[in-house]
Amino acid sequence: MNDFRTALLWHMEKHHTTIAELARGAQVSADLIKKIRTRDKASTKAEPAERIAAFYGKAVAEFIRCEDLPDSENTLNALIDLLTGPEREMLVAQMRGILASRAKR
């Protein structure tokens, strides 16, 4: 079984992700990512781990297993879990607007 550090290195290499891209997209500090990358057996707290895994469209367990997930539903669920209640409401309203405009065409 992989540890979080090994999984992070695998995902960053596979997806050609820079530290800056991951920090910005996962909303974690670049210093945290650097720490995990450079220290053997380094790990992180649950919330940053969830954010990093969600950046790649995965739950933490899937992230650590280094699984390629073809299922876009998993990606959406992982990203939606990072949103606040009001952000989710805004997303739902936007999706409904898109669907409504499509129906008018």
Characteristics of this structure?
105 residues, mainly alpha, 434 Repressor (Amino-terminal Domain)
Write a brief caption for the model.
The chain is mainly alpha-helical and 105 residues long. It has seven helices and no strands. The chain has one domain: Orthogonal Bundle (434 Repressor (Amino-terminal Domain)).
Can you put this structure into words, describing what you see?
- The chain has 105 residues and is mainly α.
- It has one domain (4-104): Orthogonal Bundle (434 Repressor (Amino-terminal Domain)).
- It is 69% helix and 0% strand.
- It contains seven helices and no strands.
- The chain has helices at 4-14, 19-26, 30-38, 46-55, 60-64, 72-80, 85-104.
- Helix 2 crosses helix 4 (46-55).
- The longest helix has 20 residues, at 85-104.
- It is elongated.
- The chain starts with a helix and ends with a helix.
